[in-house]
Design brief:
Blueprint (H helix, E strand, L loop, with lengths): L2 H13 L9 H4 L3 E2 L2 E9 L6 E7 L2 E9 L5 H5 L7 E4 L8 E7 L2 E8 L2 E7 L2 H10 L3
Antiparallel strand pairs: 1-2, 2-3, 3-4, 4-8, 5-6, 6-7, 7-8
C-alpha cells in the first residue's frame, strides 16, 4: 500500500464505526476559513461515512474530516490514533479544543472533539495546521 493511501486509511479508521448524523456538512465546512478557501467538498466518503473537505491557503493545503460520534464516544474515538503517529500530544495551537496534535508521514495533524463531533485535520505544513485551527470555529 502506498504511504499516502495507508495514511488516509489510518485517518479514516480513526473515525469509522461512529453514529451517522443528518446535518448539513456545509455548516461544518464553510467556503472560507481565514485565508483558506475550500477547493473541494464537502463530500461524504461512501466507505467510511466521514465528511471531508479540502482547503488551500497561503501556508499550504488542509484536509478536514468530521464525523458525529455522540458525546459519550468522543474521548474513546480520540484515543485511537494511527499506530504510526508520532509527536503526539496537546498543543496550545488547539486553543480551547480538547484534542491532540500528531504527525503522520510528512503531514501535520490535529484531532479534537466538539460536543458530538470528532474532527481530524491533516495539513501539508505545521504552519497550515496552526493557521487553519486559529480561524476555524468548531
Amino acid at each position: 500500500m502506498r504511504p499516502l493511501l495507508a495514511m488516509s486509511v489510518a485517518l479514516a479508521a480513526l473515525l469509522v464505526g461512529c453514529i451517522a448524523a443528518d446535518i448539513d456538512p456545509g455548516l461544518l465546512f464553510p467556503p472560507e476559513v481565514g485565508g483558506f478557501l475550500r477547493t473541494s467538498g464537502p463530500a461524504r466518503e461512501a466507505e467510511t461515512g466521514v465528511d471531508v473537505a479540502v482547503y488551500q491557503g497561503p501556508e499550504g493545503a488542509v484536509t478536514l474530516r468530521a464525523r458525529r460520534v455522540g458525546a459519550e464516544n468522543v474521548e474513546a474515538t480520540l484515543s485511537v490514533l494511527p499506530p504510526l503517529a508520532t509527536e503526539v500530544g496537546p498543543d496550545p495551537g488547539l486553543g480551547q479544543r480538547s484534542g491532540v496534535f500528531f504527525s503522520l508521514g510528512e503531514e501535520a495533524h490535529a484531532a479534537w472533539g466538539n460536543r458530538d463531533w470528532v474532527f481530524v485535520l491533516s495539513a501539508s505544513t505545521d504552519a497550515a495546521r496552526r493557521a487553519f485551527l486559529g480561524a476555524y470555529g468548531y
